[in-house]
Amino acid sequence: MYKVLLVDDEFMILDGISSVIEWEVLNTELIGTAQNGQQAMNIVRQNPPDIIITDIRMPGMDGLELVRTVHAIHPDIMFILLTGYSEFEYAKTAMQYGVKHYLLKPCSEESLSEAIGELVESRMIEDDKEAFVQSVRYGLERIKPYAKEQFLKEFLTNKTYGTEEWHYFGELFGFQFQSQQVRVLLFQIDGEHEYEHLFAVKNITEDVFRNPMLSSTVSKHVLILIEDTLTEPELFERIQSIRSIFTKYYNLDLTAALSDSGELAQVRRLYKQTIDCLSHQFYLGKGSLITRRDISNSLDQGRQEDFSYDEEKLIMVIKAGHWDDAERELTQVFQRLSELRMDSAETKSYIIQLFMGIIRLGSSDRIAEYLGRLTTVIESSTFQSVQELVMSISRDIALERFERTRSQHSQLVQSVVQIVHQRLHDEQLTLQMVSNEIYMNPDYVSKVFKREIGEKFTNYVMRLRMERALELLEQDNEIRISHLAEMAGFGGNSPYFSKVFKKHTGLSPSEYKQQYF
Predict the structure, then answer these.
(1) Three-state SS for 476?
(2) Which residues, if any, are the signal sequence (predicted)?
(3) Closest CA to 191 of 245, 255, 134, 249
(4) What percent of the residues of the chain are helix, what percent strand, and what percent coil, each to the nearest 5?
(5) Where would I find the beta strands (DSSP E) of 23-116?
(6) Cβ neighbours, 10 Å, residue 229
(7) Could you give the angle at the alpha carbon of 130 between the alpha carbons of 76 and 45, nearest 5°?
């Protein structure tokens, strides 16, 4: 049994978790509870646990301080952090101490049990490692195939061997570490699946490749090590065959990551390549075959700049109910994030920040619904699904605000807006001209318009003209700048149009056409 300590300053949470988790089923034993970090440290000193489940925010010594203190004296103790959304960035500092599990409060029994199970599995594997080398040294011939597989698995993933052990295993298993060329293949099942499905992938792979050097499950992946004897087209054909067979029988997508060819001695680097490749599945989509070529720009060149975005304009256009403008802004944001190819967790953190700003504009009776969709963003396995969700909710909110604003506008403002849209191409369009048409005082019209629309008349007209210019460019990217200026309401004043266009988009009309068309 693996010992667990539970720490939270809320008694109800302590009592709830203590009673609902089936500790024995998870091969664990709850050895105690504590309501603050100091109490927890007293228990750790007397009876060190294997796993500590702790809240972040607690009086006195908080969760992160507890992690730091315990890690200094017992670096092998594992942690599960219970955190609120607002504490997520703060909680990430615990990663330097090996913390891998962060559960958003309130968390379900299932998610907590799964996290505990993963840590128990990890610890069991570590315990097995301690005995592995010693058991192999006895040279029991009957366990040699298992020992060979276990050695490769450990060597490939994270085990470090000394020179003496290196030579011993090389002679024992007949490995040519410096000359034997190999590739690593990593499979990941997309979507919800049973653990048995991993063994199905493993069995199919063994049939297709016929006795690979290593075929094993590692966490949620199937790891395959093969000698590099096939041409690349032959290799791709076999991988596609594995994916097709699995999908046919189980109706699940299978993503594969393939390393470069390299010496057996460099197999850990090759394994890391496949892990890096799989991390890009978020951007490339489910059911992909990913190689280093697919991610060469981000792997070889690295990211040259961090992502930054001023969301003020987006918030303003959604608030005003202008979905077309909001859609254009969001498309640019997601395009930039896709180009940067950051770690999926980092990308999601930016999207979550943007998402929270957007849903604040929604009606109060739907905020809870929108917040519930936050979990979908966090758990989404593809960039496209996150983009579609954010786009959909943003559209709902923008259109909702448009209808709300339209119903609130006075007849006067509706008349002004109608005239503006009808005369937008007219360079003579002014507040004075519009006021004359509706027989109202310009100063009065200006005040009412600003109060109800939320921006000055001149700014409103200029924004619409820029939108019209962008629409015209999308419809005909060969349009002459002089004609574009005239159609957008600038008459023959092309230089002034270009100046305003650059202020609005950051690019001159010519530069904009060159970059986007």
Answers:
(1) coil
(2) none
(3) 255
(4) 65, 10, 25
(5) 28-34, 51-55, 78-83, 101-104
(6) 10
(7) 30
CB contact at 8 A, 84 and 8? no
Q: Is the dihedral of CA 14, 95, 335, 509 positive or negative?
A: positive
Contact 190, 250 (CB under 8 A): no
One digit per residue, pLDDT tens: the chain, 517 residues?
999 999 999 999 999 999 999 999 999 999 999 999 999 999 999 999 999 999 988 888 888 899 999 999 999 999 999 887 666 677 677 777 878 888 888 889 999 999 999 999 998 888 887 767 666 656 556 666 677 777 777 777 766 666 667 677 777 776 766 668 889 999 998 878 888 899 999 999 999 998 888 888 888 889 899 888 899 899 999 999 999 999 998 988 899 999 999 888 788 889 888 888 887 878 877 778 888 887 765 544 445 456 777 788 888 888 878 888 899 999 999 988 888 878 788 888 899 999 999 998 888 888 888 888 888 888 887 888 899 999 999 999 999 888 776 665 678 888 899 999 999 999 999 999 999 998 889 998 898 888 888 889 999 999 999 999 998 988 888 889 999 999 999 998 999 999 999 999 889 999 888 887 7
Type of residue numbered 45: R
Beta bridge pairs of residue 181: 263
- For 9, the token pair is 């300053």
Structural contact between residues 397 and 361, judged by C-beta atoms closer than 8 angstroms: yes
The structure tokens listed for 228 are 């590099």
Residue 433 structure tokens: 């001209």
Neighbours of 219 (CB within 10 A): 12
In 73-169, DSSP assigns E strands to: 78-83, 101-104
